[in-house]
Structure formats: structure tokens, C-alpha cells
Protein 1
Amino acid sequence: MVNSKIQAAEENLIHVYNRFPIALEYGDGMYLYDTEGKEYLDFAAGFAVCGLGYNNKELNEALKAQIDKICHISNLYYHVNCGEAAKELNRISGMDRVFFTNSGSEANEGALKAARRYAYTKKTGRFEFIAMEHSFHGRSFGAVSVTGHEAYREPFEPVLPGVRFAEFNNLDSVKALVNEKTCAIILEPLQGEGGIHPAKQEFMEGIRKICDENGILMICDEVQCGMGRTGSMFAWQDFGVKPDILTMAKAIGNGIPVGAFAMTQEVADFSLKPGDHGATYGGNPLSCAAVKKVIEIFEREDIVGHVKKTAPYLEKRLEEVAGEFEFVTGRRGKGFMQGLVFSRPVSEINLKTIEEGLLVIQAQGNVIRFLPPLIAEEKHIDEMIEKLRRALRKLQ
Ligand SMILES: *Cc1c(COP(=O)(O)O)cnc(C)c1O
């Protein structure tokens, strides 16, 4: 499988990723193809980015047309795409004000700064953050500081002071950490990287109540679970528990780098002011063309409805597999964000599925994650299950 296309990367990149020994060249719909022409059914979507799959002609045309006009102007000037993308994103996310970033980490950085800025305006003296164990919020300093996995933080300490970790889905453990210095509570409504842990309804409601009673802001990180993935446009909508600040990225650009943090008008009134924050590329005409077109296609094709309708089939078929192999102990997840839990390390499983022409992703805690493009149909799920079975049989 190793070929010369890999050599330049091996010799020149900083080695921070453990890449699999294949070089992918192009994609179409649910499938990716490597430089040898081998086909892979994709249940990874580039880490939940390519919700619409690959080579979506309509999106490609919109991007090409934008490239032929202009890609970048800077935020000294208005461009119609930026305002329109903001309007659409606010409409579908239920928020009022949005700031465009280039990534999920940057969206969370902005959210943390926005929460601190809110406390500063209100002179509350609040600066601490409560985050969750097993959380993942990105790799920049602020984001890594609220990431509940020691391996990501330890080599870079001291990280941001004043961050404390509560047990996910345990309201008492959150309450025990709340004090007069708590500025915000940040959590993923469905933890991805940490091993596919969905928040319980009572937990989301409880966090909202704690925040309301104590003047604390609730930040939901929907970088992975947002944009249709769990069967609602944004995961908070399914809980009916609205955050004060919402972070997004991954699927909102379907592969064009773009992220965002958004807030309610109440927060915006007391938060970031001119000069407080910025991003050179943030919200440029190209990334905003992507956001606008992605939202248009999502709504016209009812991608969210499709995920909601098809997810029970995915769950049923994954549970079948869980019942067949004694080293698979269960399934958890929501919508098209699913995990199978193994009683053994999962590192070899990925290599076996690659041999079978199937891409999946590992998560913490011996979990294999399934994050297919949101256009996956029952026939793709059947094909995935067959390939997965063949891969797992090799490990028996
Ligand atoms: C991927 C991810 C991030 C980080 O996004 P980047 O674009 O890689 O910076 C943050 N939060 C969650 C929940 C994620 O899944």
C-alpha cells in the first residue's frame, strides 16, 4: 500500500499525525479513492466535515464561481456573502450574532474570550471555566485548557488557569465546582473524540438551570455534533436547551475551512466590542459562499430529516454487530454520530477496515466512531456492516 506519494509527506511534515499508509486522491458521494484507484466506503467524513459527501456538483459550482470573483477582502470591508452566511447560520442555529473563524479550535477560543468579555463588562469578577471530563475542544491553548483529557494538556502546561473538570452527565459534580468566580460552563451535547458520550436530557437541563441561577454562561461546542449530525440541525435544539454561546465548524463548510461562534443578543450586548477580537481570513467571501450553499442544500434536500429517518437503521445494524463479536460490548450515540465500544484496543481495527475498503475513526476508550457523510443511505449502511464484519472476523 505504501507508495511514492507518501514519501514527501514523511520527509517534510512535522510528525504529529499517525497516518494510515494510503494516499487519497479524490472522492465521489460516499466513496473515496486512493492513488492506486482502490475504493473506500467512507464512514468518517473527514472527521464529520463532509456532511454532503464528496464532489457535490452544486457546491463545487458555487465555489468555482466565487473563486472566479474573489476569495478574500479582509474584514475592513463588507462583502455580501459574509452577512448572508451569518443570517442563514443564525436562522438555523437559533442564535442572534455570529463571528466567523477558520476552525473549531478558534471558534472555542473566541467563545471563551466572549464569556470573559461578558464578565468584564458586567464587572462580575468571574473568570473560571467548568469543562467536562472526556471533552475535546481543540488544540489551541484556550481550547486545550478546557479539554478533559490529560494527554492533550500535560506536555504544554501551564495551560489557562481557572479551569476545572466535572464528570460528564453528573450534575452534582458540576454543582460542586460552581462558585462566585465561575464565568462559563463549556460542554459538547454529544462528546465525540472522548468516546461518543451523549448528554442526558436532565444533564443539559440541569446545566442550563445552574447557569441561569448563578449568572454563568452556557457554551455548547457543536463543532462535531452540530449541522445535522445528530438528527436535528443543532444538537441543542433536540434537548430544547439553548446555550448562550454556540460553537460550530466542521460540516458548516463541507471541507472549506470555516468555523463560527455565535451568541444570543443578551450576551452580545455585553460581550465583544470593536477591537476585542478578529481573524484575518474569518468570514471571507469563499468560506461564506460555502456556508451559504451548504445550508441551502441541507434544507432543500432535507438532510436533517434523512438523518433522523435513517439513523435507527444504522443503530439496529451496529447493534447486530455488537451481538456477534464478544469483543464488541455495545453501541452508543445519536443520529449519524455512533460508536461501537470494544473490550480491547481498537488501533488494529482501523487497518483491517482499510484492507476491506472501509474508513472509520477511533475515539477514546476503545471506541470505533462512525461519522458517515449525512447522505448515507441504507444500502451504504449494509455495505459498511458487511465490510466491518469481514474486518472484525480477522481479529477473532
Ligand atoms: C474537531 C473538534 C474541535 C476542533 O476543531 P478544529 O477545526 O480541529 O480546530 C473542537 N471541538 C470539537 C467538539 C471537535 O470535534
Protein 2
Amino acid sequence: MPTIIEPFRIHSVEPLRMSTAAERREAIVKAGYNLFSLRSEDVLIDLLTDSGTGAMSSEQWACVQRGDEAYAGSPSWYRFEAAVKELFPFAHVIPTHQGRAAEKILMAAIGGPGLVIPSNTHFDTTRANIEATGAEAVDLPIAEGLDPALEHPFKGNMDLGRLDALLSARRDDVPAVFVTITNNSGGGQPVSLENLRGVRALCDRHRVPLFLDACRFAENAWFIRERESGQGGRDVADIVREIAALADGMTMSAKKDGLANIGGWLAVRDDRLAARCRNLLILTEGFPTYGGLAGRDLDAIAQGLKEVVQHDYLRYRIRSTDYLGDGLHAAGIPVMRPSGGHAVYLDARALLPHIPPLQYPGQALAIALYEAGGIRSCEIGTVMFGRHPDGSETAAALDLVRLAIPRRTYTQSHIDYVVEVCTEVAARAGELRGYRIVDEPPALRHFTARFEPLAK
Ligand SMILES: *Cc1c(COP(=O)(O)O)cnc(C)c1O
């Protein structure tokens, strides 16, 4: 049958609080026009992020009951470690409370002033943790990745020519190369195995370690299975192990492809680096067999890692995201093509050409979607990336609005409603106004900045 159904049925439900447009206009003013500052009860369909917002399975909830809360050496820890190593056989697995804690520890160990860390595209917390050490974070996506309308199977790939040039010029300043799978900030687009092998070859040639930001490893592996020649018949778990074998370590947020509500880890091959990282871990996260997580969380992640590589789950997951992307595309709304694994990205710069990047077209569109339909999305553009450590501000490469799909959470009619709201807003795009920032912190400003609409 052509319809790919959810490979689960609903076991417990969370009511949504219906709201009116007038209530939402009041709420967004109070929030300083920042969607992160809304109360989530004032949101109808929450597509702010797919991070930690998914539904756990009945097996995962059973694992929560089984969690063992021993401070050191808990059975939950050993189940977690075994589940991670089943897919990522690195010698050292270091649990953290979420992905950015793994980044902070790793960057504290390898970063520092004068150094540079390239990536296909750094995620915002990765970039911030690199810059916090005084190092420079450089994005080297392929040119195709920067053209939102272009169809290409692996728009998350890294530009090997530019990586080679950077490593040739500054090899001694590069403590590691990062590859983000899938490329979240670049549209949730996958990286091919061929490209990963190419990055590995350059890292070998220049003797630089390769790290994965592996948050959506299963979605990326599914895309490899579907789109890369010669990969079609493979087991996703096998593809994941091949990806792991190409790297020297990884950072991970279990809130994504861990199918859990919290958690993460850092994994490395190198014994000395692992020892340094564990010492840092103890300062801020906790003992190395729990790393800021409860035993029940470790158990839920261990089970999530078994479920996330199941083909029925991934087939449904990728198709349900694409269902939204196809619906918007068919309605004539400019979206990043093809759909990402976890999200669909509206091209706000294309939809709102009358709003210049420094008046934040992405923010304007995100606010309009909230006011019109109670949809919470996330600006990924000049608000998120436009401000630099020296205080200057420039347009980001793209002004996108991300509609991130929580895992196993919303049904097809929720998504049909989202398409209807987007279509209604797009029909009156010319009326939308830009915004200015009235208050912002020095780093990661998108989380807490306050905005004001500009006069017509
Ligand atoms: C979410 C995410 C992170 C950070 O993980 P947290 O658990 O939110 O701290 C890092 N990189 C990518 C690509 C992400 O999507």
C-alpha cells in the first residue's frame, strides 16, 4: 500500500489547550516576540525542536521503572554503555546530561585561542562552545548545501576541497575536524558515506582526528540506505557502525536519535583524551558512570538506541517529515529541498524578499505562524548566527524557519493543519513586517533576545 503508517498506536494522550488568535497575540507580546519565551501551554503544535520532545515507547517506560540509582557502577550504566558500543564501538563512553555538555568538555580539552575547528556546519551550541575557548569555528558545507531550492541527495556533505586547503595551510592549528550528521543547521540534510570517507582520508593525510556530532545518526544512516548507490540492502545498524569506524570520537545528544527526553554522551578512542575529559566531567556533570543522568534515563536511552535503528521506525519517521515538506512544496511555499530528516525548513528570505536579513525575516515568519495558528517554530538564520564574538552583525548564509518534528508525537491531521496555517500566512506574506532586537545577551542570543516589530 502507498500509505506508510505509524508503526505504533497511541497508549496515553496529552491534551492540547486550544487558543484563539487574540490570546496568542497577547502571549507573544508578553514573550518579547521570542518564541522560546512562550509558555508551552500557549502553543498548539510545538515544532520548536525535535530535541527531547518525542514520545517514549512502552518498553522505554518499562526501562524507567528498571532504572537502578546506584551512584557508581549501576546496572543501568552498563546497559547504557553496551547499547552505545553496539553501534559506536569507541573505547571510552562518557555520559553527559545532554549534547552540549559533551561539547563543552571536549572543547575544553582540545580547544583554545588561535585554534580552528572546521565542520560541514557547526550546530549553534557546538559553535558557542568552540568560541568560548577562544578557538574559531569554521563551516565548510558544499556549495549545493547553500542553495535551498536545489534538489541534491546529500546536501549535508562537507566541501573536501576547502577542507584540504584549510588543513594544508593551518594543520597545526586544527585540533579536530567535525562532521554533523545530519547537518541540522544546514537543513537536516544528510552526509554520504562517500563524503565521510573523503573527510577521513584528508584527516589521515594531515594527521588530524575526526569527530562526529552524531545527534541524528540513525536518520542519516537511513538516508544513506535510501539514496547512496550500493547501500540499499544494508542494515541501518551496520551503516552506523561503518560511520563510527571512520571517526575518532563523537558527541551526542540522546534527546534526538536516543529517543529519550534527556541525555547525551561523549565517546573517544584515545585513552589520554578520555582521561582528561573524565576529569572535566567530574567537575560539572558527575561520576563517570552516570554523568549527570539518573539511572532510569540511562536505561531509557539504552532501549531508545535499539528502537531508533529499526527500519519500520525510520521509514515512518523520514516519510512523515517528507509528508509535511511535500505538502508545503505543493502549496507553492518556498521550502528547503529535499526535506530534512527531522525538520522542514521554510525559506523566509525567499518568501519575504521585502524584509532585509538584518530585520530578521525568519523571526517575522515564525511569529506570524504562531499568531495565525499557534505553531511554534524556530528561526535558523540571522537571529541565530548573525552576531559575531566581536559584537558585529552580518546576514547569515540563509534565513530559514525550522519546523522540527518531535519523534512519534504528532499525527497526520496535525501536520495537515500546519500546512493550512503556513498556506494562509504565505498568502499574505507581503503584509509581514521586520523586527529589531531591543535586548540581547552576548552569546546564543536567539534563546533570550527581546524583539519589537518595525513600523510599516
Ligand atoms: C541538539 C544538538 C546539539 C546539542 O545537544 P543538546 O542535547 O541540545 O545539548 C548539538 N549538535 C546538534 C547537531 C544538535 O542537533
